[in-house]
Specification:
The complex is a heterodimer of chains A (about 600) and B (about 230). Chain A is α/β, with parallel strands linked by helices and about 600 residues long. Chain A has 27 helices and 17 strands. Chain B has 2 domains: about 70 residues, Ubiquitin-like (UB roll) (Roll); about 120 residues, Alpha-Beta Plaits (2-Layer Sandwich). Chain B has a 5-stranded mixed beta sheet with strand order 2-1-5-3-4, with helices on both faces. The chains are: A alpha/beta (about 600), B alpha+beta (about 230).
Amino acid sequence: MPEKDIVLKHPKDPSALLDVIRDVQARSGRVSDEAVGRIAAHLKLSEAEVRGAVTFYHFFSLEPRGAATVYLNDSITSRMKGRTAVARAFEEEAGCRFGEVSADGKVGLFPTSCIGMNDQEPSAIVDGVVFTALTPDRARTIVRGLRAGTPARDMVGPRGDGANQSELVRSMVVNNIRQRGPVLFGAHERGAAVRKAVSMAPEKVIDEIKRASLLGRGGAGFPTGLKWEFCRREKAGRHFVVCNADEGEPGTFKDRVILTELPHLVFEGMTVAGYAVGATLGVLYLRSEYAYLRDHLEAVLAGLREDGLLGRAVAGTKDFEFDIVIKSGAGAYVCGEESALLESAEGKRGEPRDRPPFPVSSGYLNLPTTVNNVETLATAARILVEGAAWFKAMGTAQSAGTKLLSVSGDCARPGVYEVAYGLTVTELLDLAGGAGAKAVQVGGPSGTCVAPAGFGRKICFSDLATGGSVIVFGPDRDIFEVVENFMDFFVEESCGWCVPCRAGNVLLKKKFEKVARGLGTGSDLRDLEAWGKLVKATSRCGLGQTSPNPILTTLKNFPELYAAKVREGEAFVPEFDLAAAIQDGCTAANRQPECKESLHE
Amino acid sequence: MSEIRFTIDGKACTARPGQTIVEAAGANGVYIPVLCHYEGLKPAGSCRICTVRVAGRTMAACTQPVTEGMAVENTAPDLEDMRKSLVEMLFVEGNHFCPSCEKSGNCELQALGYRYQMLAPRFPYLWPGREIDAAAPLLMLERNRCVQCLRCVRGIKAKDGRKIFAAVRRGPRVTIEVDRKLAAKLSDGEALKAMEICPVGAILKKKTGFAVPIGRRKFDKAPIGSDIEKGTGR
């Protein structure tokens, strides 16, 4: 279809902006100046605004990204599993570097933040198709195939397990379900949660969730029942349920497994939430990296409509109408923050909002909205069927129930584990085969880097809270390389709205690199701590409020590593490394820098 | 509607329902430093210089509504140091050469630097490469000085509501872009308003400059915040 018609087929509504851009990007591999003008005219926006949206999202671009585009995951786990060799193979075969398009315009190579495949790295997304467990040979084959015009989906194989095998998913992703627990993986009769909900008063549904002490599974841990209650109390013409399926925390992939194997449970949870808060529409915000699941999810929705579990008269009721639509992200970690997600779902740059007002009073389209994580909604559906008492009997006093963990890194059995809250790090390492770990990152980069001395700590809201990401680092891993990768991630993913997150993370990263290069003094460590606290205290949203954690938690838990790096007591260590600065020139001239010893040894 | 009672550093204050801490503080003669705040525009909470503390939690006073009984900490030494840090961060994040800037003396960032007695910033300069955009007939966008407060984005719009200024890219690469087509239609008065709404010297009206000589400008006469603090003895 000509680009012009692609633009015109969308409604003349600014909220369609991201959908239009997505279609144009998919067709032309870029959004050209001409396309920007067309989109702006069609949606009655300024061209500057359209450019603002295109340039905010990682998978959109004003510049050409190639007829086919490879996005190679850049998470620390990908690096641990051989990313460097795979990247080199991609570059050699394509004849261009990452961040560039090959001379013939056929293949573009770009890095990307964690794509939710940490248990099967290195992985990449090629034209929307996920390739896992890549080897250098496979990388070369893919580039050769793309050059020859073979569609990415025809190069998939072998297919993964479970629903990944179905014709609708057709993916080589594997689920790696290592431990099935009673809540998410317990036997569930399809539709039972919705039928139970509509047999009760909405207030009673909320009461049941409150009695179960269900806390949000995305990481923040807000009481779900309370959120629903606040939302229900708001007087407005419409209410919404939004399911946050934008798990972007590096190392998290448990929502991917839930969406692959238990989508009906998620949709039931959304429907139960809709009944409880008085909503007629639910929106599933699906991260772009999981676009390969979209047809599968749409088919499940169609089945639920057919069976009367969605639609005009849900589960035989007279007056409960509820349906669900899917909205796609476009590559932005910050959109996992609920108010940024809402902005993005409305077709704008995914910049967080100021709160108050909270989404429960002013959310999607500025109407009362409950935003809940995928796992939270699936869990809520199960609670309604089995009862609050059943749920509370599992886990700890403050952290009821079970949690689905995504375990990756240096362990024999990476994958997802449904465990009761209160499990210690040691117990989890035993399950996953991670004996001898040097460190365990609980909660992803925004969480805590735990040293062996802390392996007795419990995974629960009152100790080591996590949205699900657990990354194991073996005895030979360089913790400084880990921290540097995490800080690169936060700098890349900051939305740039507020000063401390936009500039502070860059300054923290530079200071950290100075220390990591062995050019730091004791005062640099004190600066790292003070600046980290500053960024946490003054940032506008959860991203900046947690982004210094890779530095702060390793400073606290691995002080000996830092002590070995810095030159305590030395009055002055030059930040400028002359040897490094002239290295390129020296390499070209085939000689060694001579100044190295005089300055830094 | 009834008045809300609250305190700032122990001083009894009152607010109207819906007022933010910054607005209510000003009405009670208490200055809370701001940069991205601009009267009449929806608050953005982007500069964070108005950071205060309530019940142990830090928050932006420009976006937080006052609630009954709220005890706001405004001048605690650690808060003032955070604000000074943020001002310093803005100086190292851009390229600010006050002596050659048309806005010197009218610049709110410079005035905050003086208020916080900033000497050498604690952070290393980042010296970013930033492009100047002089394509609009009446305006120049001097991005070296831009602090990305979004005042232009929020305040300068075309008659049909479209944004003339917009943020592009994200993270440390965010810049402000001016829409060429819409900017070409700006009147003299609108261009002047854009320059005035900018707290620094990033938006400049072409063909006029230094109409008021340096030394006789706004903050040359009275330091920032003094209009609010007048008579409070600070």
